[in-house]
Structures are given as structure tokens and as C-alpha cells.
Input
Amino acid sequence: MEQEKKLTEQESLSLITMMINKAKESYHDTGIGAIMWGAVIAICSLVRLSEVQFGYRLPFDIYLLTLVAIIPQILITIKEKKERKIKTYDDPYLDYIWLGFGICIFLLIHISNNIFGDSGSWADEYKNITGKPASFRFGEYVAPLFLMLYGLPTFITGAACKFKPMLWGGIFCWTCCIITIYTTIRIDLLLTAASAMFAWLVPGVIMEKEYRLYKKEQALLDV
Amino acid sequence: MFNDLDPILHSQLRLAVMSLLISVKEAEFTFLKEKTNSTAGNLSVQIQKLKEAGYIEVIKQFKDNYPQTICKIAPAGILAFEDYVKNLQAYLTQPK
Output
């Protein structure tokens, strides 16, 4: 680009439009984080489903995998931030939304574990008095709360980044949230796995594909 | 009656840099170079002019032991860019 070339008004306007579009197109998420979390949540839900279905128990809680996944997520975030040449105005807001989401999920796990523990003793007492098992099982009502939370940051990110697969993924989570209020724990786990796949895994794969394409184009331009 | 277009902005490379910076919070020098297809020397001179006009802020720092230059648009730059686009629109919408 020449330094002092004088432009006509029309050329100026075209240049502004072109550069704004270039800036918009230049940010591509690698999608690795989304793929990882989509896969982790789907695996956890499906393994728990198989435990419930086939009546066995792993020697550890499969959901501990989510804690392990935090370590690669931190490494991915550091690497992606290092590689990025621009910062957008949305970045800090989206970072805080996902951080807040993570905190809410762990609070919800803590809350549900406590209430779950208490409701167990109520159920035992009910069985002792009436001789019948309690019809209300708190565990069957936890999934909608998680799905409601899954939908929120996914929907906001999809809308803010104008990335429709994630936007629809968020809506899918909320749809499943409503369905799981009326279904048994087996269906709840199946829908949780489906939500993780539609909200994160599939959009992540699409993002990763777009990122690779962008990198390829950049490499060709550099030649 | 039309206002004159800002001479600082009415130049190809400087306008390209300002258009890129208006769309993001901040950008590395290498990003601007890559997107404008300009040479490092040429881009440095134009960035210096924009900085002297108070339109952009330039931050020089080190990243992994390598020098890194970060540019971001200043409030005066946002105003100047908005005025420039307004004047441009006035020129383009004038009856011929």
C-alpha cells in the first residue's frame, strides 16, 4: 500500500469498508476448548447413564473429569491469548461470562450435593415410616438446572460473535432444560450429553475447521 | 458548503490503519502490516504521524524477549474518524 496516495471520496469509503471487514474476519477461535468441553461433558453424562442403566459403579466419580479438564483449558487459553494479534471490545466480557459460568456450575454442584445428601435421609425416613420408597428423588431434578446454565454463556457467545451454531446450541440446551423437567434421570443424562454435543462439540468442530482454513489462506498470502 | 476532509486521514495507508483500529480494541504492529500489505518502514512512518496527531496510542513492550508494538485508537482519533466519515458521506450525497 502506497503511503501518500490521495484518494477519491468513493475510494476512501471502499477502503474503510474493506479494512473494517478485514478486521472482523481476522479473529478466529481455534475451537479446541469448545471441542474439549463438549466431549468431556458428553462422556461424563454417557458414562453416568451407563452406570444407572447397567447398575455398576466406577471406583471414582466420572464428573471429576471436569476438574481435570480445567488444566488443559488454562493452557489452551494462555496459548490462544499469546498467539492473538488483536484484542476486540467483546473479549473481556466473554471471558468474564465464561468464568462466571464455571463458578456457577461448581456452586450448583456443591448446592445439589448438599441437598442430595439431606434428601437421602428424608427418603430413608419416609421408607421406614410408610414402608414404600419416596416418589420424589431430587437427583432427577438437577439436570434442568445444569442445562439452564449451559445455555446462557453459549447463547451469549453465539450472539456476540455472530456464530449461529453456538446460538442454536444455547437454544437447544434451554429446550432440553424444559424437557428434562418431565423426564426420568436416564433421559436427562442422554439429553445432557446431546446438549454438550450440540452446544460445544459441533460448534467447536466448525470453528476449528474455519480456523484451519483461515490459517491456510494466511499461509498462501504470506508466500 | 462542505468541510475539508482531514488531511491526516485522507491518505491511503493512514486511513487503512485507522479503519482497522476503529474495529478492534488494540492491534499489534504485525497485524496492521499484514492487513494493509505495507512495508514495516512505511507503516512506522504513518503510525508516527497518526500518533503525533493524537489519533492513536502506541505502546512498545517486550513479549517473550521480543519487542512488540501495540496500537490502539485514541478518543481524539475516534472523533476525527467519525468527522471524516460524516464529511465523506456529505460529499458522496451531494446532488450532481
User: Anything to note?
Assistant: The radius of gyration of chain B is 15 Å. The first helix of chain B runs from residue 12 to 23.
